[in-house]
Amino acid sequence: MQRRIRKVAVIGSGIMGGGIAALLASAGADVLLLDIVPFDLKDEEKSKPAARNRIVKAGFDAALKSRPPLFMDKADAAQVAIGNLEDDFDKLADCDWIVEVVVENLKIKQDLFKRIDKVRKAGSVISSNTSGIPLKDMSQDLSKDMRAHFLGTHFFNPVRYMHLLEIIPGPDTLPEVLTFMANFGEKMLGKGIVWAKDTPNFIGNRIGVQGIGKAMQAMLEHDMSIPEVDALFGPPMGRPKTAIFKTSDLVGLDTMAHVSKNCYELCPADEMRDTMKVPAFVEQMIEKKQLGNKTKGGFYKKELTPEWKTIRKVINPKTGEYEEYGKADFPCLQAAKAAKTLPEKIKAVLYGDDKGAKYAWDVVANGLIYSANRVPEISDTIVDIDNAMKWGYNWEFGPFETWDAIGVAESVAKMEKDGLTAPKNVKAMLASGAKTFYKLEGGKKMFFDFAANSYKPMQLSPKAIVLADLRANNKVVKSVGSCSLIDLGDGVFDLEFHSKMNAINKEMVEFMMEAGEYVLDNGVGLVIGNQASGMPAPFSAGGDLAYMLGLARDGKFSEIDDFIRNVHKGIMGTKYAPYPVVAAPHGLALGGGCEVCMSADRIVAHSDLFMGLVEIGAGLVPGGCGMIHLWQNYINAKPGIAKITDLAGFFIQAFMCVAQAKVSASAADARNNGLLKATDRIVYNKDLLIGEAKKEVLKMVDDGYMPPKKKKTMVFGREAHGMLWAEMLNMKSGGYITPHMEFVAKKAAYCMSGGDVPQGTMVSEEYLMTLEREAFVELWKTEGTQKMAEHIMTTGKPLFI
User: Fold this and answer.
1) Does the predicted TM-score (pTM) go above 0.85?
2) What is the average per-residue pLDDT within 237-250?
3) Residue spans of beta strands (DSSP E) within 252-398
4) What is each CA distance from 166 to 152, 493, 597, in whole angstroms?
5) What angle do CA 505, 506, 512 make, to 5 degrees?
């Protein structure tokens, strides 16, 4: 039987159901979103579809309005049809997959699945997004065919952005159904698949909730403050900036406490069950409706003074009152800040001797022991536990990767010295002679399997290429401080950025040209891509403003001119290289990062791509041929364009992308903005991005690749100036733009329009690059641009002057 998923029903239109529906629609499926009929309908409303669909319509509208957006493209919303569980229930018979996302109540779920069993078509997949009710209890009275096609598919919120999808087999699920759903989730929905067992809260929330509970209890025992805890359990530990308490505010204290209570009640034999209890002060906050961001106050809150000054406050667990707070600091945090690598940072925190270090060790050691003791209860392998925490909680290292980072034998010795009971399976591993949970052997990544008490190879998708593993296998052929050239095999190389936020600096520009020569002599093609972590992870956050601002303040404008000449040389060297170049952007691809991508023959982009030419926010015009390539994308999309009306329409669209510093909400949106071409590809799974880009290079080679020929470009010319100058004057007079912003925008318009030439003139790229370079240098000479650049560097926000 050939399985396909073309139509999916999502039952439940709350935050999670709406997010699942949006993801499925963006992936190309037809979606039926259903919810209950309101209980409070008046007699005159009972026959009106709009009234009967009021709940589902509210859920759908919330998904549409969500920020950050849940749909990749607003047009994807047309893929979703809404209905209710009375009038539209029979439509489930047309669905290939039905996913339940209703309230966590066993009887409600059982009754719903019995109804579904009567109308579903044979072979359709049925899944539950539950994390608190055993699948065996939900499916016990269902038909044999439905039980064979029933499983758990546990997404994490926000669904579009969280990489984790836990798949849980039901008691009777067919193996081929599980394999099919895992492949669909990985390839079509872009998820990282973790295989969980039918245990309370599965993997991610079981480990996560226990860790949060322990951190809160230990905070009181060690007399720590909330900001101190978050300072320790943020970036220094490879965790998100929201750490523990800010993350709880995002999730909602009521939601966090519900999951904790559910886990406590369903895990009576758990040796650390008591750590799952939330402290009394948290229960009191929930009673007072201090639930986090959704109530404008949780552990943290903001207050506005009469002078419109924002004051940030945090709750004092001892008094229950909000207090102002300062920056937390410990010697171990200072040591972590000075450390270069994440393992060194974690060691600095955990092996320190101050109050903060002792608290962090207490929490982490407890979490490591707990994670090891959950194998094989919740997972057969350490790999799924690590992946669940990385993909579901945005940790850079999972528990066992963290253990490797701090030294397994060293940490076990410290645990036992502190009176803790090290896990038997870990001690058995050390006794076998194994020193780490992961290792490279024969070029392959291996993990330690507790059941076999030996190493086993990790099972990776054949399309997945892990750059860190290639680096460990000595596949780096050239490297400088900010970028490397890595051999991907088959004659394809990868240019990897690794500067801070992958900002493009002088060293990187020079290395790109050197790397290009190496590929010319030794390879068949080039991928430009990295695997930065974080949310959103930076492919490249732009150009190195600090370097150029330093030159400007020293009056070294000739050096800025030389730098931009080199940028242009590198960009055009990429564009006209005698071998195919494929860019593989993901996350942030701003300014110079966007321009690097646009110079490639093809872009293979991750679906979550936040791309744009944003230089105007720093008081600059794009300096890496971004305006040139954006304009070419617009006019090349319509061959034979010649009419002034056509040029005007295209010019306004292209210019506004630059003038408004538009950043795409997704790769699909980047295509709508002209930053991606119709021939560029979008990949949903970030893990497969480098592999897919390599495949694209090899396909172009196999097709007999020839570099593009240089052609002149038709420009709008001076006709653009009169059209825009008057509008900018009106905007400045109305206070919508500042004088310097008007000056910068005029420079951008002048460059993009081709300068002082008649409409329809054909000009060379060299001519357009000269206009761009001259404008770029001239802007750096102004006090306004220098102030704007400094402000955006220090605050991340534009300065309006």
Assistant:
1) yes
2) 94
3) 300-304, 310-315, 322-324
4) 8, 33, 33
5) 90
